[in-house]
Write a structure and sequence with these properties.
Helix content: 10-25%
Number of helices: 1
Number of domains: 1
Number of strands: 5
Strand content: 35-45%
Oligomer: single chain
Strand order of the largest sheet: 3-2-1-4-5
Radius of gyration: 18 Å
Length: 145
């Protein structure tokens, strides 16, 4: 028998995610882990342009491995920015081979988020035959806390 969730009304639930406001966020890095070809850097928002975001999680998805199996150079630069923001340019962590993202856990950085839009090729509009436009946040810069 399927469970019934009493008190819930799915008419009042939206599956549309609204991006956070553009601006600077102070975050604590909680954990980073590989999810397939993606490095997911999970953070908790400590300061934000809008109070409603404080205490919320923000996940930065970094495409580490390209479809051809090679490391994505732009993503390596993105990861290095995290290391430099926490440990400083030229530090052993920022120049590590191979890098260990576990050392970021518990540290704070400032992220500047922008709103980015893209065509979702998995969500096709039957009228146009094209992917629907989606918006999300993108990390524009990573700075020391």
């Amino acid at each position: 028998m399927s469970p019934v969730i009493h008190g819930a009304n799915l008419k009042e639930v939206s599956t549309e995610r609204k991006p956070r406001a553009e601006g600077e966020y102070l975050v604590t890095i909680m954990k980073s882990e590989m999810n397939g070809k993606m490095l997911v850097i999970k953070t908790k928002i400590e300061e934000a342009p809008e109070d409603k975001d404080i205490g919320q999680e923000f996940w930065d998805w970094v495409n580490i491995v390209q479809n051809d199996g090679k490391l994505n150079q732009i993503s390596m630069e993105h990861l290095k920015r995290y290391m430099e923001a926490v440990f400083g340019k030229g530090s052993p962590e920022a120049d590590a081979e191979p890098p260990d993202t576990d050392v970021l856990d518990g540290h704070q950085v400032r992220l500047y988020l922008i709103v980015d839009s893209y065509e979702d090729k998995k969500d096709i509009d039957p009228e146009t035959g094209k992917g629907r436009t989606k918006t999300n946040n993108k990390v524009k810069s990573i700075l020391p806390a």
